[in-house]
Every structure is written in C-alpha cells, then in structure tokens.
Amino acid sequence: MERWAERHGVDAARRLAEAEDLADAVAAEITPDNTVDTYGKSWRVWTRFCAAAGLPQLEATRGSLVAFVTWMLREGQQKGKGYAPSSASTHLAAVVVGLRQRGVKVSGDDQAEARAALEGLAVKLLQAGERRGRGQAVGGDIDGLRAIARACPDTLTGARDKALTLTGFHYTSRSQDPAGLLTGDVTLHPRGLVVAVLTGKTKHSVRNAKIRYADDPGICPVRAYTAYRTRLVAEHGERWADPSTPAFVGIDRWGHVTGGMVPDSVTRAIKRISTRAGVPIAWTGHSLRIGLASVARRAGRDSIAIADQGGWARHSRSMFGYMQREDGWDDNAAAGLT
Length: 338
Description:
The protein is mostly helical and 338 residues long. The chain has 14 helices and five strands.
C-alpha cells in the first residue's frame, strides 16, 4: 500500500487496497468447497512433513519439494505407508498453491523438478511391481441396474435410490452432480427428462442432458424419477415441489427427510444400493459415469454423442479412459485382420 501511496496518493492507494480485498473475497466465494477441502488436507500433509524433516513450513526450495514428494511416496500417510503417486501429485500441487497464498515464492523450476522426481519414483514403484491406490472404479452396467431396481424396497428411500441410480447412469453423474441438483433443474419433456447439470471442474457451464424413456419400464429413469418425486410430495408436502428445493433428498432410517444430499452421502448411497442388490463389486460415486461411457461404447454409440451426454470435451482423454473393455478378445483391434 505504501508503494501505491507514493505513486498515486493515499486515497487511490486505499481504494486499490479495497479492490484487492474484494478480489480475495470473490476468489474465496467461487472456489468450490471440495477444492478448499483438498487444499486444507494437503497443507496438513505438508506440515507433518516439515515437522518430521525439521524444515520451516514457509519456505519452498528445490530440495525441500523433492524431499516432500519422496517422503510422501515412502512414508507420508499417517499410518506410515506411502501415498499413491496420483495422491502425492495432488498434494504437491495444492501445497504450492498454499505456499503462494501465504506469500512464499515458489520457483516454477523447483516445482517442475519435484514433479519430475515424483514421476521418476512412480516409475520405479511400477518396475518393482508395486501398484498403489484404488485404481479406476468399476463401471456400472445394465445387469447391475436391473438388480438394483429389483432390490429397491417399496419405500420413499427405495424410490429415491432407484431414481438416483437410474437417472445418474443416464446423464453420467459424478457424486457431486445429484447433490447439486434442484427440483427446477430437472424438467419433464414429452420424450423424457432434461437435466441441467453444472459441468467442468474449473471453468463451469451448464449442459442440458436429455434422458429418454427406456424401453424396459423396470429400469426406466424417467418413470423412476417421476414416481420418486410424486411420492416425496405426497408423503412430505407440497413444499418439496418448489423448484428451489433439492431434487434428491436425504432420508433417515425413520423415513424423515433431512434436507438435500451432499456428495459424500451420494457416494455412500450408491455403494449401499449396489451392495444391497448383490452387485459383485460394489459401485462407487463414479461408477455411473464410467458405466454410461463403457456401455454406450460397447453398444456402438458415437464418441461425440457420448461426450455431449457426459459433458466431456469431444476428444477427452478421460472419457476414452472410461470406455472400459470387457476383455481383450471381443474388442480387439487386431481381430479379423488376417
């Protein structure tokens, strides 16, 4: 502020300082809660490393950042085990952000060297036959959807579970997507449902995912959603028909509505629902998103149509990664060439 005062006068310097405060407030308001949570977790990992290594928290050098990623891979978790390389990469990026927010200068070259060290050590782990992390979640499939639909009890919770799973599969939901939907975001159309979904991890937009009536009424997402919403309003009042209320509600064991679902409760619900249905490998909050991409790919759907339905860029590497193959025999690029 003193520098601004020297150049522009005290009043202008005060206004510039107020503008800086406003910019900080806007940045805090638009940063997603899960991003803030990640930054907080990663900073706690950094403080544990600094305490273990006897290094100052508010200093970032080439050596300290390389030592940090090495420590994370070898013993960084609280139980003394090493992190998966993907988790270590996330923590490194978040810690650099945290250091800069605290006024610490972090050289791009130093950060790049730490990341190169991380990638090299990750290769060493693979060469040693050590694979860490959960890997990609299992993808949902049509047989699983049928089993889930049959296993849902004739209660409001059962109707909610069925609608949550069937609609989520058809618009390729992440766990945060149904948690963020309002009643007004889901509209009935003569051919099905239109779901207005917030898309993008950093630059957000809204996509209108279209869900058609299914040929099989037992696993029709449109019928399941309308039945759930009709039952919710009938049992708990007209206020739940208001467009500003959550589309998917939390329900306790006694059948009381507790408010809107949050991403963690969606993830837990999908796991519980799939386990109840006897799905061989329990689904996670990402299984519906992976499942639509995989099933549509096997059914011969165009990759552009899949990308548009799921909100991916049309040549997204992550989308193609989700297009899991059943095995390497039926879906084999070399099959039938000779």
